[in-house]
């Protein structure tokens, strides 16, 4: 059973790496902002005794919006 789990983990990792290869800067920032926001929101939700799932959902949404804002600022400053 263990070798199947290892093979599945390798397959998932390779799939994620190739799935993100053709993303634009905006998409990359939205994805990273959402992931960071979801992790932070889940941690805050768990630490405050609330719902980690609700914290992750709220943090993820806020992170996506933050990623878009950062992208627009970078574009307006001519960084790419």
Q: Strand-and-helix sequence, N→C?
A: HHH
Number of beta strands: 0
Low-pLDDT parts are none
Helix fraction by DSSP (H/I, runs of at least 4):
over 70%
How would a textbook summarize the main sheet? none
Structural class: mainly alpha
Our estimate of the beta-strand percent is under 5%
> Into how many domains do the coordinates divide?
1
Shape category: flat
End-to-end C-alpha gap: 47 Å
The number of distinct helices, counting runs of at least 4 residues, comes to 3
Overall average residue pLDDT:
88
Question: Can you walk through the features of this model?
Answer:
The chain is built from three helices and no strands. The mean pLDDT is 88. With 80 residues, it is an all-alpha fold. Helix 2 (25-47) runs antiparallel to helix 3. The chain has helices at 2-19, 25-47, 52-76. It has one domain. It is 82% helix and 0% strand.
């Amino acid at each position: 059973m263990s070798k199947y789990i290892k093979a599945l983990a390798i397959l998932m990792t390779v799939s994620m790496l190739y799935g993100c290869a053709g993303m634009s800067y905006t998409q990359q920032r939205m994805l990273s902002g959402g992931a960071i926001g979801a992790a932070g929101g889940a941690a805050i939700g768990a630490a405050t005794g609330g719902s980690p799932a609700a914290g992750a959902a709220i943090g993820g949404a806020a992170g996506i919006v933050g990623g878009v804002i950062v992208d627009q600022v970078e574009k307006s400053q001519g960084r790419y």
